[in-house]
Write a structure and sequence with these properties.
single chain; 210 residues; mainly beta; 1 helix; 56% strand
């Protein structure tokens, strides 16, 4: 039996600025000026040690972050986007233990979506972060996963949300994932995003605020 010890040190700085913080606006000019910008700078130091003979310990230090912009709401419409980036300052990983989770060197447009609200119904389509009992992205490493998907949600029923969605693409943490269906973008060449076609349908009783 072999043992693996993992040590993670993280440091982050979060910033945010807004004018009216996603207020409903009455003109196209105000659509962008009423939006907000926020983001974070992150530093991850990741060390793995192994007891098994022939296995090499690994170490990686990655720095980066994200910047996100959301418009205000104009006639029910909103736009949003997010860039994420990662730079490898130091790596010692002979066995490529961090290839699928930390070893990302480049940038990616992780969110680019249109959102429309009509009464108690919300539609959101494009690249986006998403979490549900069936499908969820992980944010436990420097690059947060995301999906290209289309979803619709309704909370007309008291304390109940009904949602349905279609996921077509999946963005992972790096471009060297261990999983056969987990391609990220190729930072050094063209974008390569896996096709993951499936439907999600959920009915959640979750005490929604009214």
């Amino acid at each position: 039996m072999s043992n693996k010890n993992i040590s993670i040190f993280t440091l982050s700085f979060i910033f945010s600025t807004s004018v009216f913080a996603n207020d409903t606006v009455s003109s196209f000019d105000q659509w962008f000026s009423a939006g907000n910008v926020h983001g974070a700078m992150k530093s991850y130091y990741f060390v793995q040690t192994f007891d098994k003979d022939g296995s090499h310990d690994s170490q990686i230090w990655a720095n980066g972050g994200n910047i996100t912009f959301n418009t205000g709401k104009f006639n029910g419409f909103e736009l949003g986007g997010e860039f994420q980036g990662s730079y490898i300052n130091s790596i010692n990983d002979k066995d490529a233990k961090t290839a699928g989770n930390m070893d990302a060197d480049g940038a990616i447009l992780s969110e680019s979506y249109l959102k429309y609200t009509l009464g108690n119904t919300i539609f959101k389509g494009g690249r986006q972060h998403f979490s549900s009992p069936f499908v969820a992205n992980s944010g436990s490493r420097l690059i947060k996963e995301s999906f290209e998907m289309y979803q619709i949600r309704n909370h007309s029923l008291v304390n109940t949300e009904i949602s349905a969605g279609y996921v077509s693409k999946y963005q992972t943490r790096t471009d060297k994932s261990y999983y056969a269906d987990n391609d990220f973008v190729d930072f050094e060449k063209k974008e390569q995003v896996v096709q993951v076609n499936f439907m999600t349908l959920a009915i959640a009783v979750c005490g929604l605020p009214r």
